[in-house]
Amino acid sequence: MDTTNKLPLDMVYHWEKAKPNSLYMTQPIGDGKTVEYTWGRAVDEARRMASYLKSLNLPEKSRIGLISKNCAHWIMTDWAIWMAGHISVPLYPTLNADTVSYILNHAECEVVFVGKLDDWDMMKPGVPESVRCISFPLSPPNDFETWDDIVAKYPPLEENVQRDADELATIVYTSGSTGKPKGVMLSFGNMAYAAEGGMEVLGVGSEERMLSYLPLAHVFERTFVELASLYAGFHLFFAESLDTFVEDLRRAQPTLFLSVPRLWVKFQHGVLQKLPKKKLDRLLKIPVVNKLIKKKILKGLGLDKVKLAGSGSAPLASDVLDWYRNLGLELLEGYGMSENFAYSHMSKPGRSRTGYVGESAPGVETRISPEGEIQIKSPATMMGYYKDEEKTRETFTEDGFLKTGDKGEIDEMGRLKITGRIKEIFKTSKGKYIAPAPIENRLMSHDAIEMVCVSGANQTQPHALVMLAEESRPKMADEAFRKEIEDSFKKLIADVNKTVDPHEQLAFITVVSDEWSIENSFLTPTMKLKRNVVEDAYQEKVDKWYAQRQPVIWQ
């Protein structure tokens, strides 16, 4: 891949000079009002904050924490930390105090920026008293030094500070679906390579518009939103809240839109609530009406201007993918990890295949090990895990390939299919191995299902735990509704069992009454299921369920 060798800060200085008066970020501040940041204003405020950070005389390359939901100040802070010669440590805005404490202590953060948060009271006890805190304009009430006071007081840093490609830029702590989060060390060179390669594949230009709402603490949003906007120079919008999300989308009218499977499913359920699937399918078969309906649905979702839509972070059920494509939205899946800055595989327009996450991105080497593990090598791959040389050694092969822990296969066009996690595979009492992910994807085709976990280690056959979609959960006590769900789930089990090997056939589906959420630790901050937490929560009941010998069980 050709590279301009421009590092992130080089791009900051480039736009500051090339188009200082062009709009870069639109930040909602409540009551339908917004604040606009030109490139000139954004870089000026970052330079002023960098001056302040330098005035603190912190040790060279200090780690500086960043706890906030996405906002314009998140991005300006990242730049300021780099300009001041330090390393940014983003934290998810939904972490509990224990995890906040672990990360800040493990990274030895000297300073923490506190921004827009829904539950600061929950997180606050995790911040050591020795850490200096600075608050963003949209932060919860506190008595910290404020961003606005600091940028008013300090002059902008004059020099264009340069950082080397192999210098550590950021430590991204993995969302930790098992055990303690690991600190993924990413260099400026890793970031630059991923950003340039992503733009090359997707054909992204300066006229794009994007809405930033998935956590910037996660590499998916950091690569394809923060870094992509920095390298392409396009306009970024931020979401105010979940309640205003559709309004935020309509304001942004994004041309590029990224989401995670759970949200794509939620959008679909929202549409099907107003327009049942059978009726929609019937309308889409009428030639004249077809285009109007598709346009109306996409406009209602705020996605009518989208030319490129992507899904990542976890597999998306093929039925959901096909549903969007049928509406005229070519939803493309991609694949990446924190350990390679989300730069690995991408589906290309016109070359995508349902169930596959695309082809190797430019400069990425991919191979499948004899055990079926996907192994990847590229200049975007991390420097290693912070303070954990042993774990770093375990994660790489002797010839430098990253061991992803995912199982996969590659088709004749070089497209990759993820067939499960090596560690998620479990063994039945008959000694047969089962990969849950493909079965879960088949179950997700049902309109009433929002999340599913296939389990059954040491049992004769696997079973599925199912959380119903948001609109269906309140009806769980209604007998007529239960009967309808039971009938459709019996058919679903029969249909799925026809497509799998005998040892993979489901014994039953259990419908859970709990909501699996980030708040109760059933999901990671990127909405991936914490399989061990889900299984542990119901472990005591499993034997009783098998003894009932019923195809559908209500928990």
UniProtKB/TrEMBL annotation:
Signal peptide: none annotated. InterPro entries: AMP-bd_C_sf (IPR045851), AMP-binding (IPR020459), AMP-binding_CS (IPR020845), AMP-dep_synth/lig_dom (IPR000873), ANL_N_sf (IPR042099). Keywords: ATP-binding, Nucleotide-binding. It comes from the Bacteria. One of its GO terms (molecular function) is long-chain fatty acid-CoA ligase activity. One of its GO terms (cellular component) is membrane. Pfam families: AMP-binding (PF00501), AMP-binding_C_3 (PF23562). The keyword ATP-binding applies. PROSITE patterns: AMP_BINDING. Transmembrane segments: none annotated. This is AMP-binding acetyl-CoA synthetase. It comes from Marinobacter maroccanus.
